[in-house]
Write a structure and sequence with these properties.
By secondary structure, the protein is of the alpha/beta class. The protein has two domains: about 190 residues, Rossmann fold (3-Layer(aba) Sandwich), CATH 3.40.50; about 110 residues, Rossmann fold, CATH 3.40.50. It is about 35% helix and about 15% strand. It has nine helices and 13 strands. The strands form two sheets. The chain has a seven-stranded parallel beta sheet. A six-stranded parallel beta sheet has the order 10-9-8-11-12-13, sandwiched between helices. Helix 8 links the parallel strand 11 and strand 12. The protein is globular and about 55 Å long.
């Protein structure tokens, strides 16, 4: 089914999209975007849509665990480089030229994929260049407004400008902005629709088997820094740990290997979770109704804001 751009506002709800060939991609800032995308893709498939996923090899390996029968195409990761100093603004500025070139290349590739696979709808989980001028393109985010300082207003203006290139925005939150607070408020006048919180644990069978679980996520080297902090923090012990295969763990933590689905079982059965205050992790803890100890990534304003927003809510521990 070819979607008419003029009728896009009438099909904003994900439940109203059916029998459509969809091209989907998620940002590579950690794996939180991949994590929440699993729930969205599940619903698209339940509504009899055909989904083609574009992503890196690492993203493909994860998606294939949940959707082995889908078609996958290669898509380069954004060229983020992080120093580990906590100065995210400087790190992104340093990567600015590479990122700009990447957006141009990504837009060209998206148009090519739309043509090759006869795509009717493009869905981009926070990839600014993953949109088409030939078919409707939707940007998926929980951040309509970035948590930047007043002197970084230009950054937020650029964010709005890039989102406006899309025909619509799906906001991963409720209309009252309960989950993301001011981050998800529509201050840019966007064609936005709130699709509610999303988690791959929406239908998880939960139990408590007497252990704490640390979820090590986020871009390198911040993931290794979190692991080292947990190793030193005796209040967390004993603790099991799940994370990227490149992490270097030492006693007394117990590093757990396995697939994402193996990790899902560990998460569902833990008594308590320890993690960064990333948005996807907070949504996971909400659906699991498990205590979550949050440790914001140094220098990441979004995680600090979410930490302050959620630290006093009932199932969250600070």
């Amino acid at each position: 089914m070819q979607i008419d751009l003029k009728e896009l506002s009438l099909i904003m709800r994900i439940t109203e999209i059916s029998n459509t060939r969809v091209l989907y991609a998620a940002l590579n800032w950690g794996m939180g975007h991949v994590s929440r995308s699993i729930s969205i893709i599940r619903e698209l498939l339940e509504n009899k849509n055909e989904v083609i996923i574009a992503g890196s090899e690492a993203q493909k390996r994860i998606f294939e665990e949940y959707f082995p029968a889908l078609t996958y195409v290669a898509l380069k990761d954004y060229p983020f480089t992080f120093s580990g100093s906590g100065n995210f603004a400087f790190d992104l500025l340093r990567s600015g030229l590479k990122l700009n070139e990447h957006l141009k290349e990504e837009r060209k590739l998206t148009e090519e994929l739309v043509r090759i696979f006869n795509i009717s709808l493009v869905l981009s989980d926070h990839r600014y260049g993953f949109c088409s001028g030939k078919v409707p393109s939707v940007f998926i985010t929980h951040q309509l407004t970035l948590p930047v300082k007043w002197y970084q207003k230009r950054v937020n203006n650029l964010h709005c400008k890039l989102m406006q290139k899309f025909d619509a925005v799906w906001v991963v939150d409720r209309e009252d902005s309960y989950f993301a607070g001011k981050l998800s408020r529509n201050t840019c006048g966007l064609n936005a629709h709130y699709i509610g919180p999303r988690s791959r644990f929406e239908n998880c069978t939960v139990s408590n088997e007497g252990y704490s679980l640390a979820i090590i996520s986020g871009p390198t080297p911040y993931d290794q820094q979190l692991l080292e902090l947990i190793q030193k923090q005796t209040d967390f012990h004993p603790v099991k740990v799940v994370g990227n295969d490149n992490l270097k763990a030492a006693s007394p933590v117990s590093m757990q290997s396995g697939t994402w689905k193996d990790r899902d079982a560990l998460i569902c059965n833990a008594d308590k979770l320890i993690s960064r205050s990333g948005y996807s992790t907070i949504m996971d803890a909400y659906f699991l109704r498990k205590p979550l100890i949050m440790i914001p990534t140094p220098g990441q304003a979004e995680q600090q804001y979410l930490y302050n927003l959620w630290k006093d809510r009932s199932f969250i521990s600070s």
